[in-house]
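Side project, low priority. Logging it here so it doesn't get lost.
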Amino acid sequence: MSTYIDPQTFSELRDSEVLPAPSGVRLKIMQMCQQEDLALPELVAQVQGDPVLAGRLIQIANIPNINKGRMIASVSVELLLMVGLHAVRQMALAISLTESARRGDCKEFDYDAFWARATAMACAGQALGDLLQVAPPAEMFTIGLLAGIGQLGLASARPRRYGEILLGGAQGQALRDEEREVFGFDHLSLAAAMMQDWHFPRLFCEAVLHHCDPEASGLDEDDRQQRLIRLLEMAGCVADVCIADDARRASLLPRLLALGERFELPLSSLEYVCGRVSWDWSDWGALLKIPTRVLREIGPELAAAAEQAA
């Protein structure tokens, strides 16, 4: 039962099968990951049959902070246990959605732009999760990818009415206010409800719900939940930097610097994160045929923004 939007409303949306949802082999993998009597070799066989999922899990397993030993080159029981079944399940969901929900009936919704930012935010979540150790990188990739899934849900479930809202040009808080006025909930609440329905831990649902306005959570800044919310907020900012053109990017850097200060990240770390995200994002773009770009050297721009803010 949804605790983020009216339960009856959510049930009607879900049961009408208009919301984005996983299917096929990846749905089976997700179901297997929830079985108490799971036979891991059988799950290995299923993952091996999905080259995209297998490749991503191998890449994650070889992150230095996760894998302290030899490099892993194939899917095995060892890999699944290292990454974690929760992360395997979430990654299967994420990849299923990126490949299946690429077009829809809402003409005013830019599906390519949506997935471009979603994948950039996923890569940023993974990089920051690895660097800051607030949550596992694999899970942060998935949460970053799903943070805006409520917008895709509204475009899928209410294409005509949501298209009319989008034509008005509202963004940020103004867009969420208009969504609540028209539908009774906004896209962040819908995203949290969808993730809750997919059995994500409440910790992650709350992070998605509040990441666009962390102060609204009412939590202390030292609380782990609030740090996760702040990490996701920063992942969104890194994603915006990556997708922005050169003219707009400079205006985003002061906010990135301010968010980095919350985690005591020096300029070198911010430069590293942006560079890593840019390359990872480009890899995903080539894999999923999502429009991406390689971010040019950002160190001088960051230094100039820091000097101007001093």
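Brief comment: The mean pLDDT is 88.
Revisit when time allows.
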